[in-house]
Design brief:
The chain is mainly α. Helix content is 64%, strand content 4%. The chain contains 19 helices and four strands. About 2% of the residues have low confidence.
Length: 443
């Protein structure tokens, strides 16, 4: 088993996500840091901090110079950050010492790395938005289609009252819709430029420091926080919480599908389920099981990532390293959970016959609540509850059907009609409300 299954040629199709992983590759990080260095030089040239000719040269060179990440490894191991080696390699690659001397003017390693990370996280959020939009739309269609398909609701693993499959689908979708909306509120704290200098004072840039930061943010398409934030990891903490919550919502979908496809219940079929090496009859819910495992792993990583917010003083290497060890993996696994859910949802096929059987299993005891409320229109509520409870006990001893016993003891009411008219309560409305909320919005 590899140290990171998401990066393994053997397990990557199960746990990995190519689109997200590309954003956290060494080459992507180096390229993003060079973009920041080039934009910084361009802005400083425009504001007169460095010669305009050198600024133009460095900006162009940031797109042209090629740097092998592996060539930075030895110095990174010594320095604890790749930027010193990157700057040296960039200056060498420029092959113009007079211009190269102005590269990285007044910035510090964390400025470059945090700004480069924000550039890549911006792409990641766009990927998540696209996937969540598609996933919510798919769940909305499924909820609308089966808004009135009755099935047994379960609490504590036991039969409770009737619901509809569409309402169950909407319970998967509402949290994801909320997470999609929460992405927007998370942007200001996450997608911000960093330019603070060695100790957060921007002293090397004098009075022009704040203006450089503001212009750098514009050049990179990021947000200017208006202050130093080297030790302020609230944005990363918000991302950690978001990922844990999103992964949990996707894991909930997986948990329910594992149970709904369970032998003996089988209220849902999953196309393309996994097989066993020895048991020909097996149709294993592999996708849902991966969703659950991913949710558990992301929750653990999110806890560690949140703890990385404990920075000592102006900057803390241990906290920063903890962030590096956990953030990429959490992002990739969260992305995989979204992508996998998009694969699983179209494969879901409810079985109305199986759902109907489970509604009447055990003598229709699932209808006890509805019958007690209906009977309460003919007698005081406590008496109605006691009457239905007595009939439930008779069902358990005799094996009779609860609705038949109600018709026997309390004739004059079409109990089946009562259950048909009001048995699902607001379940269909819940399903349709989610479908409407999740429908793709016109541009």
């Amino acid at each position: 088993m590899p140290a990171s299954p998401a990066d393994s040629p053997l397990y990557a199709r199960l746990f990995g996500d190519d689109e997200a992983a590309r954003l956290f590759s060494d080459s992507a990080e180096v390229r993003a840091m060079l973009l920041v260095e080039g934009a910084l030089a361009q802005v400083q040239g425009a504001l007169g901090l460095i010669p305009a000719e050198s600024a133009a040269f460095l900006h162009r060179a940031s797109f042209e110079v090629q740097i092998d990440p592996s060539a930075l490894a030895a110095e990174t191991a010594t320095n604890g950050v790749p930027v010193p080696a990157l700057v040296t390699a960039f200056r060498t690659g420029c092959n113009a010492p007079d211009h190269a001397a102005f590269a990285h003017w007044g910035a510090t390693s964390q400025d470059i790395m945090d700004s480069a990370l924000a550039l890549r996280l911006k792409r990641l959020l766009e990927l998540w938005e696209t996937r969540l939009d598609a996933l919510c739309a798919a769940l909305g269609t499924l909820a609308e289609t089966h808004a009135t398909l009755p099935m047994a609701a379960r609490t504590y693993g036991q039969l409770a009252t009737p619901t509809s499959f569409g309402a169950v689908v909407s319970s998967w979708g509402w949290p994801l819709l909320a997470q999609r909306q929460a992405l927007e509120t998370m942007r200001p704290a996450l997608l911000r430029v960093s330019l603070s200098g060695a100790a957060g004072t921007l002293s090397a840039m004098g009075d022009k420091g704040p203006e450089v930061r503001a212009e750098l943010a514009k050049a990179l398409g990021l947000i200017d926080p208006g202050h130093s934030w080297h030790a302020d990891r609230t944005g990363i903490g918000a991302l950690a919480g978001w990922m844990a919550t999103a992964a949990a919502a996707l894991g909930k979908l997986g948990e329910d599908l594992i149970l709904l496809t369970q032998s003996g219940i089988s209220e849902v079929a999953l196309a393309g389920a996994g097989g066993s090496s020895t048991m020909p009859q097996k149709q294993n819910p592999v996708g849902p099981s991966v969703l659950v495992a991913l949710a558990r792993q992301v929750a653990g990583l999110a806890g560690t990532l949140t703890s990385a917010g404990l920075h000592r003083q102006q900057r803390d290497g241990a906290a920063w390293f903890t962030e590096w060890l956990t953030l990429p993996q959490a992002c990739i696994l969260t992305s995989r959970a979204m992508g996998l859910a998009l694969e699983v949802v179209p494969k879901i096929s409810p079985d109305p016959a199986a759902m109907a059987r489970n509604l009447t299993a055990g003598g229709s005891l699932i209808h006890a609540e509805a019958l007690s409320f209906a009977l309460a229109t003919r007698m005081p509520r406590p008496e109605a509850q006691a009457a239905i409870k007595r009939l439930c006990q008779e069902v358990e001893t005799s094996g009779a059907d609860l609705t038949d016993l109600a018709a026997r003891d309390y004739p004059g009411t079409d109990w089946q009609a009562v259950l048909t008219q009001g048995g699902l309560g607001q379940a269909p409305a819940e399903a349709r409300a989610f479908a409407a909320a999740a429908a793709p919005k016109p541009d």
